[in-house]
UniProtKB/TrEMBL annotation:
Residues 44-323 form the Fe/B12 periplasmic-binding domain. InterPro entries: ABC_Transporter_SBP, ABC_transptr_periplasmic_BD. It comes from Methanoculleus formosensis. PROSITE patterns: FE_B12_PBP. This is ABC transporter substrate-binding protein. PANTHER family: MOLYBDATE-BINDING PROTEIN MOLA (PTHR30535:SF34), VITAMIN B12-BINDING PROTEIN (PTHR30535). Coiled coil: none annotated. GO terms for biological process: cellular response to iron ion. Gene3D superfamilies: 1.20.58.2180, Nitrogenase molybdenum iron protein domain.
């Protein structure tokens, strides 16, 4: 009898051990990221740290409640659109890019004592060294690092499906993927209708006297403007803020549309609209100068992430209203609600798009009347630019 009891006790203990082992096994899973790394993760993800600004933007669109840290602090202009909880979170820094040194293993390890990070999320374009880089910091910190590719517009739907799997939010990932897929299909159809009748444009990111920075064609930052228009800028030679042109170069390009980046006080936009040299351009005379909206990020990029979809929606309707015939206000509000979980008021939308919509007909007529005569203005502008360039060469 005693022998039987002992055997029962052993069986119970073994059974308990087996259950505990199975439970532990069920609490983790293996995820393969987009550079082929196998990462052991919790089945349920609740605590995520973004590795940089791209990851921060995209993670926010999936589930803002997942954040336990941010890669960088939000500016005052961004903060109004952001969940207030995120404004109080610790900053873990950036792993890649110009601020890569701000993320280091020691700080991650220290923060993780309190944050219990499930995974550090990295998003963008896969680099040759990414696999060993991520393996190295993961081994040093003991925290899982996962990379998901999201570089070109066409990669966004697949990236959301992958993120849904990674972050244990499959339904949300699929919802966002479906929206983007439908949007890209809509624009593929529309741009085929536009065909060879694309409007010419330039995207001005900075103005400093006779120096003008524009985004060159073929760059990551130019993907949307290359797609919806005929980007007159030469092929990109630098990244970031764009390539440098002289005012004489801009006058010779003479685009149909000028898109200008936002800065405080609308400084670049105001320069274009008031400077006599700029006003000799047909885009200015015809009222086709528009400032890219900013909030919580520039719609054109900076960094170039999912908000570029907004710029596509905006520019398509702006330049080809007969093809992309929809209410731009409704589409923008829909995007903010879906991706930023923010319901824009009419007043907020008007503020965002203050220089992003065509002016009333009366205002356009007045601007045309006040602008210099086309031929005289262009000749005067070219002469002035040549004089400035000449002074520079003679110094």
């Amino acid at each position: 009898m005693k022998t039987v009891m002992k055997m029962l006790v052993v069986l119970v203990l073994l059974s308990g051990t087996a259950v505990a082992f199975c439970s532990a096994a069920e609490e983790t899973r293996t995820f393969v990221d987009d550079v082929g790394r196998e990462i052991t993760l919790p089945v349920k993800i609740d605590a995520v740290s973004p590795s940089g600004p791209l990851a921060q933007i995209v993670l926010y669109s999936v589930d803002q409640d997942l954040f336990v840290s941010v890669s960088s602090e939000f500016t005052d202009a961004q903060a109004k659109y952001i969940d207030p909880r995120l404004l109080t979170l610790p900053v873990t820094g950036q792993f890649y890019g110009s601020k890569a040194a701000t993320m280091n293993p020691e700080s991650i390890m220290e923060l993780n004592k309190n944050l219990n990070i499930d995974v550090v999320l990295d998003i963008g374009e896969a680099k040759e060294t990414m696999k060993p880089d991520l393996d190295d910091i993961q081994s040093k910190t003991g925290v899982g690092f996962a990379f998901v590719t999201q570089n070109k517009l066409k990669e966004i739907p697949g990236s959301y499906v992958k993120l849904g799997e990674l972050l244990s939010r499959p339904e949300r990932g699929q919802e966002l993927a479906d929206y983007v897929s439908a949007l890209l299909a809509e624009f593929d159809t529309g741009m085929k209708e536009v065909g060879d009748n694309k409007k010419s444009l330039i995207y001005v990111t900075a103005i400093d006297g006779n120096s003008v920075s524009t985004i060159g064609k073929g760059s990551y930052h130019a993907e949307v403007i290359d797609y919806v228009g005929n980007n007159l800028a030469k092929p990109a030679t630098t990244g970031g803020p764009g390539d440098e042109y002289t005012m004489e170069d801009i006058l010779q390009l003479n685009p149909d549309y000028i898109i200008v980046g936002y800065v405080d006080g609308h400084a670049y936009y105001n320069t274009i609209m008031t400077d006599p040299m700029w006003r000799s351009l047909s885009a200015v005379r015809n009222g086709n100068v528009y400032e890219a909206p900013y909030g919580p990020y520039s719609w054109m990029g900076g960094p170039p992430s999912i908000q570029r979809l907004l710029s596509m929606i905006w520019l398509g309707n702006l330049m080809y209203p007969d093809v992309f015939d929809y209410d731009i206000d409704e589409r923008v509000k829909e995007f903010y609600s879906l991706f930023f979980r923010y319901d824009l008021t009419d007043a907020e939308l008007d503020d965002l798009m203050v220089y992003a919509k065509p002016a009333p007909a009366s205002a356009s007529a007045q601007a045309t009347t006040q602008a210099p005569a086309p031929l005289f203005g262009v000749l005067a502008g070219l002469a002035a630019a040549a004089a400035v360039a000449g002074r520079g060469r003679n110094r």
